[in-house]
Amino acid sequence: MFTTNERDNTSTTDSNSTSMSDSLSDTSTEDSTNELNTIMSMEERVKSVFELPSNDKLINRFPCYMIRIVTLPGWMYITNQHICFYASLPGKKKGPHKTGYLTKKNHVNSPRSFRYYFELSGHVLSWYESAESKYLPLNSVDLVGVIRIDMYKPKKFGIRLQTDTGRYFLFADSQVSQKEWFDELRKGIFLAQNSGSSIRVALPLANVIAIEKPSVFQFAENIKISISDGDDEREVIKEVQHNSVITLSWY
Fold first, then answer.
1. In the chain, what are the domain boundaries?
2. pLDDT one-digit tens code per residue, 194-229
3. Which one of 2.30.40.10, 2.30.29.30, 3.40.50.2000, 3.40.50.720 gives the CATH number of domain 92-193?
4. Where are the alpha helices (DSSP H) in 8-167?
5. Within its chain, how far is the Cα of 39 from the centroid?
6. Model confidence, pTM
7. Strand order in the sheet with 232-241
8. How many helices and strands, by DSSP H and E, does the chain display?
């Protein structure tokens, strides 16, 4: 179902990129035993990390990227009962950082607008009277509390932030600037609301209801898997790229 390089189509690899079946059938009993122990050890780690049942068996693993708000490199593990994904989250030092001037409105229909100097640092968005007065922020938004962010299309170059206490309307000077701020804010929101050190996803194969191959990107083969979780139906898209890296995303 997936297209991968030969070196990636096993649960474990050796220095010669030998396939699992070849390694286990090697005439050297010692080498075969070591390989088998490695496979069993990885399987136990996968079960532990994803809290899988004891009778679940690891079939394969693939290097991949998960695309949600940010792109996270990680691994996808296929067992006989689950599709699992694991990725480490970037540390605080690698969090988003952006500065520049934006126009702010307290209400989208308000005739009054204010131009401030904004700074996004990690999970906090602050604004100041000017770049020279950064010692005293006028206000700030903790991205942990952001419920929704979108590009506000009724107004040119607009970004709308909705928190549990109110809404903020920000306007950039150009479409390029709007996209840059939007991407960095989404990254900050994602990291702020996923404060752990990793992302772990386990999808039961029993819940898979459809598999399709849509043409999402020109540079990638795509596999779209629809799964049902009770009354909630989600769609998971796996894009197998030409460089044999699987991109995992869901909406």
1. 6-89+196-250, 92-193
2. 767 788 888 888 887 776 766 665 555 556 667 776
3. 2.30.29.30
4. 20-24, 29-50
5. 27
6. 0.60
7. 198-204, 82-88, 71-79, 58-67, 246-250, 232-241, 220-229, 208-212
8. 3, 15
